[in-house]
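User: I'm curious whether this sequence folds into something compact or stays loose and floppy. Could you predict its structure so I can see for myself?
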Amino acid sequence: MTTKPKAGGAGETLEVRCGDKLVGLLRRRSDQIQDIEFVYDEAWVKDPRAFAVSTRMPLTQRW
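Assistant: Here's the prediction. I'll summarize afterward.
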């Protein structure tokens, strides 16, 4: 998996990819480092070959 930065600071978004497929987005919602969320990409969730990025983050849309 790879990540690609989209911006900096609050509102920063990282793409999480497996090869060329988008797995989801990791976003910082505020300037507080712990205020983050991960959202699986809808196409990834529907892919029969998809897997969770963590056992604590099963293949549901939002974390």
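Summary: The chain has one domain: 2-46. The CA atoms of residues 27 and 37 lie 5 Å apart.
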